[in-house]
Each structure stands twice: as structure tokens, then as C-alpha cells.
């Protein structure tokens, strides 16, 4: 943020240079990102070879397990159910949490009132509350979605509330001086200023929503990624479980990397302009 | 101080509103099942939860089968995460190349449902204390690593130069200079780590295990012993609150201890 330089010449040269360098840096950081997974997989393969046990599959066996799984119609249905519920719960958490946070953040007073309860709900172990969801909403998809939503909504509300309450007063005065309408103020000043935090909140909320969903599916569900994991413990299909764990990690990493990239771009743009 | 203006809404300060909110929630939890606003079979009034919890805490079996295993696992997971996390943090901070490769994953880590590993660990190691402590440690350790790194980054350069000028050994440098310098951040990380250890242990017990508080709650649910189940849930919430309040108090005491 400290790189804002309004006195810079308006020539496009530095900007394009910066963009090129940024693209190069992004490519390099992506390559750096791959180092740790590659090392971990190699270590995994090494340990699996040394242990040489049926209950400790190597990466290749896990890959075979995943191929078996993905060839199975039941597993594909499970995966699609999980992804659908994850998307619904995450969107709900984002919209509800974002709106609540934005509204409470309008007032420093109410932000102070609600920050302790919201933080408490964010940090308590919510796992053991799942039976309550089952009792109130039944064994169907509703309880799983609600539980996943319950994991994601508090960090969203908390972060957006904090950012809204801490909005730079200079920006507010600027929009007053420019005599912007209510709508212009919202779309041209307030929302862009909140954007980096909203993206961060979306990312954290995504991870927790996914965690909530997997936990719910593990505890009581007849379908879904979490259910498949637990079902395979009884069958002692360790190769399948290992493959499924990797698959779940990959499903989580995709959206998170996309959000991180977006976050970086938004911040860079804010820094340049 | 007497002229300090405390902002009030409807005559109440922000803190009073927070307390009022909590009391209203507790009142709702008591009254809603009684007037059948919610199904009284599914939700037990708060006073019954408390009575049941007091009764449970008076029985030795509950301590032996539920509370002791959970507290042991949480303490072990937290201790391991703290030691390993600080060690890994210092190591990563010293070796820049490794840090560059690992650091982005520290950011991503909590977005991956690490808990998916638990069934795998159980399949390999069997049900028991080991997998539960392992999962709790995995949940907690990254928060400690991250905070140790930021603590070391924030340490003043002069302090680090002091270590060089005193020609300390690597071990002395770590224990006498680096860790104390990063301590304020480590305390923050430890607070998070303890919360995460709590969540990791309880979730493991809840999903798949044969003892512990999490297991107690899931078994009570399966046995339709809802009063016991709610008492267990209440105890979990109390434990989490004690942990949070305790660490907050520790954080407030620290600056004075330094003087």
C-alpha cells in the first residue's frame, strides 16, 4: 500500500513493465509452490517402500485407488453431492456473513457489542454441536448444509465487520466532498476498499465450510466425500482412503489458489492506482 | 477519568449490550423448549443441561472415560504442537530457501480439510490415543509455526546482532535470543494452537474413537440420551471459553511481567 505514487509520470511504460514482471513472478511463485508437494510425495513413496506393508500404500497405489473410485458411479455421485452442498453452504455463508458484517460494521458501537460473541462462535469447537443440527433438521442434506454454513459464516461476518468499521475516514470524507450518491459511494469507494478483506474472508470461510461439511458427512451421512472415507476404514481399503484424502486436498486447493491470486491482483491494483 | 465519555445506546454501554445479548440467548435456550417454541424432545432447557452436567461431573466414570482421555490428548497435542511448531519456525526462519518453498503452504494449510486424514491414520494405526493426538497436533502446529515466523521477523535487528557479537552457539542463540524475542507472537500462536488442538481432539473422538468427551457426546446422541448429550456439549463450550479467557488474561498480564 505504501507504494502509491501519484506523482509518477502517467506514461504507461512503468505499468506494463510492472505487469510483465508480475506475470514472471507469478509463474515463478507457482513453481515454488510445487516444491513442497513434490518433496512430500517423494518422501511418502520412500517411506511406503521401506515399510512395504499392505496397510501403508504408496502414492502409486493411492493413485490406483482414486482411479478405481472415479470409475465407480456411486463415488462420483458422492463427490458431486459434496461439491454441490459445499457450494450452496459457502455461498450462503458468504452472502449472510458478508451482509451481517457489513451492516454491523456501519457502527463502531455495534461492532464492539458483537465482536466478542462472533469471535466466540468462530473459535469454539463446533463439531460436537452437530447432533443438535441432526435433531432439529433431520438426517437429510439440510443438516449438513446448515452445519457447513455454521462453520463458514462467523469468520466471514467477523472479518467484513472489522474491515467495514475500520474503513479509512479519509475515504468517507472524500466521497462526501465529491458529493457522491449513496449508490456511487457504495460501488466506487466502499466496496473496492473492502475488496481485499472480502476475498480473504471468502478464502477462510471456504476452508471452514469444507471442514464442516466433511465432518458432518463423516459422522452421519450415506453419501459424500466424508462418508466414503469412513466407509473405507471398515473395508480396510487404505489405498482408496489415501487417494481420497489427496483428492479432497486437491478439491480444496483449487478455489483457494484462485482466491489467493485474485487477492494479490486486487492488492496490486490498489497499490498502483 | 471521571469525565471520560463512554458511548451508550439506550442507556447501555457496549459491554452491557454484549452481556445482555448473552443473557437473552441463555434465556431463550431455557424458555423456548419449555413453551414448545422448539421441539422439547430435541432441545433440552438450559437448566436441565446444567443439572445434568453437574451430576455427570460428580461421577467417576465420566471423568475416567470421557474427561481424562480428552484432557490428556489435548495437553499432549498442544505440548507437541508448541515444541515442534517453535522448532520448525526457528528452522524455517534460519533457512531461507526452505522457507520460500514452505511459506505459501502455511497460508493454504487451514483451507484444506486436514481432518480428512483422520480415517487414514485410524486405518493405519488403529483406534486409540495415538491417532487422536496426531490429528490434534497437526491441527495446532501450523498456527504455532506461523506465529513463530512472524515473531522472529518482528525481532529487532540489534537483538540478533547481540547474539553474533556474543559468539553464541546455535543452541544458545535459539534458546536465549531468538525464542525470547519472538515470545509475544508465540503466545498468540499458542492461544490459537490450543483452540485448534481442542477442535482436532474433540472432532477425532466425535467421529471415530472409543473414549473421550467427543465420543461421549456422539454415543449419547446415538442412545437418545439427549440431556447427557447437551451436558457434554455445554462442557465443551465451557472448556473452550476457559481456554480463551485464560489466554486473554495471560496476554494482559505479560507486559507487566516484562517490566
TrEMBL record, chain A:
Any coiled-coil regions, as ranges: none
| Recorded superkingdom | Bacteria
- Residues crossing the lipid bilayer are 30-51, 85-105, 117-139, 145-168, 189-216, 241-262
Q: Does the keyword Transmembrane apply?
A: yes
Subcellular location(s) of the protein: Cell membrane
Q: Does the keyword Transport apply?
A: yes
Chief subcellular location: membrane
Q: Which CDD domains match?
A: TM_PBP2 (cd06261)
Which keywords, in A-to-Z order, does the entry hold? Cell membrane, Membrane, Transmembrane, Transmembrane helix, Transport
Location of the ABC transmembrane type-1 domain: 79-263
Query: What membrane topology is given?
Result: Multi-pass membrane protein
Task: Report the sequence similarity comment from the record.
Answer: Belongs to the binding-protein-dependent transport system permease family.
Entry-linked PANTHER family: ABC TRANSPORTER PERMEASE PROTEIN MJ0413-RELATED, ALKANE SULFONATE ABC TRANSPORTER-RELATED, MEMBRANE SUBUNIT
Q: What is this protein called?
A: ABC transporter permease subunit
Tell me the organism.
Answer: Nocardioides imazamoxiresistens
TrEMBL record, chain B:
* Spans traversing the lipid bilayer: 12-32, 71-93, 105-126, 132-152, 194-217, 229-250
Keyword rRNA-binding included in the entry's annotation: no
InterPro entries xref list: MetI-like, MetI-like_sf
All residue ranges annotated as the ABC transmembrane type-1 domain in the record: 67-247
Task: Name a Pfam family for this protein.
Answer: BPD_transp_1
Chief place of localization: membrane
Concerning SUPFAM superfamilies, the annotation shows: MetI-like
Any idea which UniProt keywords this protein has? Cell membrane, Membrane, Transmembrane, Transmembrane helix, Transport
* PANTHER family referenced in this protein's UniProt entry, alphabetically: ABC TRANSPORTER PERMEASE PROTEIN MJ0413-RELATED, ALKANE SULFONATE ABC TRANSPORTER-RELATED, MEMBRANE SUBUNIT
Family assignment?
Answer: Belongs to the binding-protein-dependent transport system permease family.
Q: What is this protein called?
A: ABC transporter permease subunit
Taxonomic source organism = Nocardioides imazamoxiresistens
Q: What is the lineage of its organism?
A: Bacteria, Bacillati, Actinomycetota, Actinomycetes, Propionibacteriales
